[in-house]
Write a structure and sequence with these properties.
The chain is of the alpha/beta class. The chain is 37% helix and 15% strand. Among the domains are: 222-327 and 535-577, no CATH class; 414-534 and 582-613 and 741-800, 3-Layer(aba) Sandwich (Rossmann fold); 646-729, 2-Layer Sandwich (formyl-coa transferase, domain 3), CATH 3.30.1540. The chain has an 8-stranded mixed beta sheet with strand order 12-18-17-16-13-14-15-26, sandwiched between helices. It has a 7-stranded mixed beta sheet with strand order 3-2-1-4-5-6-25, sandwiched between helices. A 3-stranded antiparallel beta sheet has the order 7-8-9, sandwiched between helices. β10 and β11 (345-350) form a beta hairpin. α17 (423-433) packs across α25 (582-604).
């Protein structure tokens, strides 16, 4: 079988895991990845997960502080198809490999820049760390209610790293599609800061709407009450092991109650005669206590066997990421691989990004030693650079295709989406942001997700940039319309459970027999080869099973719970720790995998099926611990109060009840931070908490931020605003254009969550969310239906549209 990126060379000029994961994925897809390192190697090779993100690459050592080193780099750029750089914008400029300069060395180069804070704005040159961008964007304030101490809570899972890595893959793959179609150089940009946009699902819109009405926006972090919903409740078994339930929809909750033998008892009580959504507060608390008490009657293993046997319950035990590597569903689905490393022996780690049936991933080589391939790689580079002639093939228009649309590398690509809730729909919005036409097919009543919050505000994000048609796929006419849509599509995306697509006439074998170039994408909770393939799954299940929730929860899972009140409190902490990040974590993987399949089609002329599952996607999100080998250091846990990982990477209280997050990871940064604080660098070592507390208490968070950032240190406020308000007003977002304006049919003009990656500067405008069936008539007309036919379909409720008001 061909490899999606076989024959392409990727030059990796990044440091650390973000660019490392991005280029690793490209290498797994068959690219020749050449990592350029300084003498002594990438300083982040000391991280325990480096064997993962260095796998399969070739290492070249160049001293880019010297003229000869930069000359060798330029010779290598001339041989590359893709160049990936990281760090502040000045770094690439200083090496002479910013996008403009690099295009002179290789006219059809795809240039990808991964920055911390974006290419513009007041922090553009500041070191970028997940903790710092999470603090400054309000993400740590969003966790405030996890503990009862007040103030921001350290966000442990480095989700900005994950999204930025996947955003880079998305942008590079989209740029390669555009290059194949139009020729010319392509400029890809992503950042840790904009990579946090996917994790706010609704607050930005609510802030915009409230301010338009002249009222204070509600505190979204307080939404949903203090304790978990019954649907998403963590429960403790007899052996002290916690299980996370994820039964979002009513039929799943009823299946859970039946499986634990409580449904009959509840239905015998008149307080529970109505559907669960109508249970009053008193009834909910009675049901909660019954559930918590019942689950303590058996061990976690016993309960999981019962829930598996039921087959219609979403639940997973809380595991660490290290334990997640042994999860039976990941192992059975071949999502964990072992590579023999000459220095470490066998290394087990997260494997392929997704299952590609036509261009499978290749993961068979370990991490290189520093400079292992310097001689052989430089020997292949041209001895001297030759300036490209005017009109060289590969310059804009050189491929002879239609003119490209600025910022829309996927222009001309059509995606048809059959998906609900968050993970899959958000992935296709990312494709729409890159210029694809996305036609969303919903049931006549609209996606159930629309009805979870009044007025459907939550769907503004998951439907952004799309068209929507409501079809009843249970009818022959509805299925016929769906087939017409697919006939004109490049990509089909769904999140049906196994067998459903086939029953609807949308199965991969049937459709690709008619349309062999179709990319058919399945996004599921579990891999198709796993024993849980037919079970439901929602985001908290993946969060629990892959270790993210355990990491975020601090010491909660180890806390004894001798009383029911203790169980209730820990369950409250666990659900706050197990927030919605597993859905966006999956979305960015699904979009990246879809785009790699599109590149393969452009290069090799083949369609294929792509299978994405939430467990593997969230193992990627926890890549810092998704690797195991002899002698590996364990994942460092946050302190019990969830301030951070040590004095140089944690939250600090400041004067006036303020909070600042300080991130220093090198001796040079530590020295600069110590100078700002007026202490010895040794004082920034772990265990110096009291001395530092007294110093930080002397100034406000704003004053400390000004002092640290002036010194080039990532010491930033963690108390400035919650995410929605930061996205709406902070110059860090506005100066970079990360929250562009759009106009929604119901909500009017507002700022929306911008793209996780931009190609060639991004689009001139980004589409709003849409109402269910907002484009039903227009899409049917395009398919050839006249007014009378459409009216008949509407009268029989085969097609529908949501009213505007």
């Amino acid at each position: 079988m061909p490899h999606a990126l076989g024959g392409l060379r990727v030059l990796d000029l990044t440091t650390g895991p973000v660019g490392g994961i991005a280029t690793m994925v490209l290498g797994d897809a068959g690219a020749d990845v050449v990592k350029v390192e300084p003498p002594g190697g990438d300083r982040f090779r000391s991280l325990a997960a480096s064997p993962l993100w260095l796998r399969g690459k070739r290492s070249v050592v160049l001293d880019l502080h010297t003229d000869s080193g930069r000359a060798d780099l330029h010779r290598l750029v001339a041989t590359a198809d893709v160049l990936v750089v990281s760090g502040p914008p000045s770094r690439a400029r200083g090496w002479g490999v910013d996008a403009e300069a690099a295009a002179l060395l290789r006219p059809d180069l795809v240039h990808c820049s991964i920055t911390g804070w974006g290419p513009a704005g007041p922090f553009a040159e500041l070191p970028g760390y997940d903790g710092a961008v999470a603090a400054r964007s309000g993400r740590m304030l969003a966790f405030e209610r996890q503990l009862r101490r007040g103030g921001p809570v350290f966000s442990a899972v480095p989700v900005s790293h994950h999204v930025a890595a996947m955003g880079a893959v998305q942008g590079i793959a989209a740029a390669l599609v555009a290059r194949a179609r139009h020729g010319g150089p392509q400029r890809v940009e992503t950042s840790l800061l904009q990579s946090l946009l996917p994790f706010d699902l609704v607050e930005l819109l609510i802030v915009e709407m409230a301010e338009r009405q002249g009222i204070e926006a509600p505190n979204i972090t307080a939404a949903g009450g203090d304790l978990p919903t019954l649907n998403y409740h963590p429960v403790m078994a007899a052996d002290g092991v916690w299980i996370q339930c994820g039964n979002l929809l009513e039929h799943l909750l009823l299946a859970f109650l039946d499986a634990i033998d409580l449904l009959g008892d509840l239905l015998a009580d008149e307080r529970f005669i109505d559907p669960p959504a109508l249970w009053g507060p008193e009834a909910v608390e009675v049901a909660r206590d019954k559930i918590l008490i019942r689950v303590q009657e058996r061990t976690a293993a016993e309960w999981m066997a019962i829930l598996h046997a039921n087959g219609n319950v979403a639940a997973e035990p809380f595991l660490t990421t290290a334990a997640g590597l042994d999860h039976v569903d990941l192992v059975a689905n071949r999502d964990v691989v072992t590579v023999e490393d000459p220095a470490r022996g066998p290394v087990r780690m997260v494997g392929r990004l997704a299952e590609f049936t036509g261009t499978p991933a290749v993961i068979d080589r370990p991490a290189p030693t520093v400079g292992q391939h310097t001689a052989e790689v430089l020997a292949d580079a041209p001895a001297a650079l030759v300036a490209p002639a005017t009109g060289t093939p590969g310059m804009p228009g050189g491929a002879g295709g239609p003119a490209a649309r600025p910022g829309e590398p996927l222009a001309g690509i059509t995606v048809v989406e059959f998906a609900t809730i968050i993970a899959a729909p958000l992935s296709t919005s990312m494709l729409a942001d890159l210029g694809a036409r996305v036609i969303r097919v919903e049931v006549p009543e609209g996606d159930p997700y629309r009805h979870l919050v009044a007025a459907g505000t939550v769907a503004a994000k998951t439907t952004a940039g799309k068209e929507s048609i409501c079809l009843d796929l249970k009818t022959p006419e509805g299925r016929a319309i769906a087939r017409q849509l697919v006939a004109g599509a490049d990509v089909l995306v769904h999140n049906y459970r196994p067998g459903v697509a086939e029953r609807l006439g949308l199965g991969e074998a049937e459709l690709r027999a008619e349309h062999p170039r179709l990319i058919w994408v399945s996004i599921a909770g579990y891999g198709r080869h796993s024993p849980s393939a037919n079970r439901p799954a929602t985001h908290p299940c993946a969060g629990a099973a892959m270790g993210g929730a355990a990491f975020q929860s601090g010491v909660a899972l180890d806390t004894p719970c001798p009383t029911l009140a203790d169980v209730r409190e820990i369950s409250r902490q666990l659900i706050r720790a197990n927030e919605s990040n597993p859905d966006p974590n999956t979305s960015v993987v699904a979009a990246a995998a879809t785009l790699l399949a599109l590149v393969a089609r452009e290069r090799h002329g083949i369609g294929q099926a792509v299978y994405v599952n939430m467990l593997a996607a969230n193992l990627y999100a926890n890549a810092d611990d998704a690797v195991a080998y002899a002698g590996k250091a364990p994942r460092r846990r946050p302190d019990p109060a969830l301030h951070g990982l040590g004095s140089g990477y944690r939250l600090h209280r400041t004067a006036g009840d303020g909070w600042l997050f300080l991130a220093v990871t090198s001796d040079a940064e530590r020295a600069r931070a110590a100078a700002v604080l007026g202490v010895s660098p040794v004082t920034l070592a772990d265990g110096a908490g009291e001395a530092l507390a007294a110093v930080f208490a002397t100034r406000s968070s704003a004053e400390w931020e000004a002092a640290f950032t002036s010194a080039g240190v990532a010491g930033v406020r963690a108390d400035a605003a919650t995410p929605g308000k930061a996205f709406a007003h902070d110059p860090l977002f506005l100066d970079n254009g990360f929250t562009p304006e759009c106009t929604h049919t119901r909500f009017g003009t507002h700022r929306r969550w911008g793209p996780v990656v931009r190609v060639d500067g991004g689009r001139a405008a980004y589409g709003p969310g849409v109402l269910a069936g907002e484009h039903t008539d227009a899409v049917l007309t395009e398919l050839g239906y006249d007014r009378a036919a459409i009216a008949d379909l509407r009268a029989r409720r085969i097609v529908a549209s949501e009213p505007v008001s």
